[in-house]
Amino acid sequence: MKLRFSQDLEALLKVLAEKPLTLGDILAETSERGFSLVIALLALPFLLPMPPGFAGPLGLGCLILGAQMAVGRRSPWLPKRIAQFQFPNWLVSNLLGLLRRVTALIETFVRPRLRQLAESAHIWQLNGLCIAWLAFLLMLPIPFTNPIPTAGILLLAIAMLEADGLLMCIAYGMTIAITLAVAGIGYVLWQSPGFFQDLFG
Hints:
Elements: H1 4-18, H2 23-30, H3 33-43, H4 55-70, H5 80-83, H6 89-106, H7 115-118, H8 121-139, H9 147-162, H10 165-191, H11 195-200
Helix pairs in contact: 1-6, 2-3, 3-4, 3-9, 4-8, 8-9, 8-10, 9-10
C-alpha cells in the first residue's frame, strides 16, 4: 500500500528538484495539510549529516508550526526569514532516497485507524504540543541526539497525514520515552569532565 505521506512528500520533493520553492510557497500550496507535510520535510534532514546553518531554521520552523497547531491554528504561517528558506538540490536528492527507505520501513503497518480520535480538534492540539516539544529537544546542543526526537516528529506527521489514531497513541508514548532518553544523554554528557568547555570553547 502506497502511503499518502510518501506520495505527497515524494511529489513535493520532485517539484523542489525541478523548481526551487521556498517554505512559504509550499505552505501556500498545501494549506492545512501543509502543517504535516512541511513538518515532515523540515524534520527529515535531521536523519542525515547536517551542514552548518541548516539546523536552526529547520528546527525553529518545526517548533513554530507545532506551536501553532497546539493553539488550534489550521492555517500554517512561518516568519519571513524561515519562509524564504530553500532546499538545495543536493539535499532534495538525498531526502528522496531517505524518504523511500523510511516508507519501506513503515508502510506495512500504517493505515487509517481510530479515525474519530485522529480527527479530533483536541488531538490536533495535542499533536502540535508534542511536535513543538520534540522540536525544542531537537534544537538542544546535545551531540548524537538529533535522530531521536526526529523519529517522534516524523511518526506524528505520518499519523496525521494517514489519519492513524493508533500510531498517534504510540507516538505519545515515544514522546515520553524520547524526553527521558534525551534528558539521560544530556545528564551523562553534563557529568563528563570538560565536555562543555570543548563544546563552547
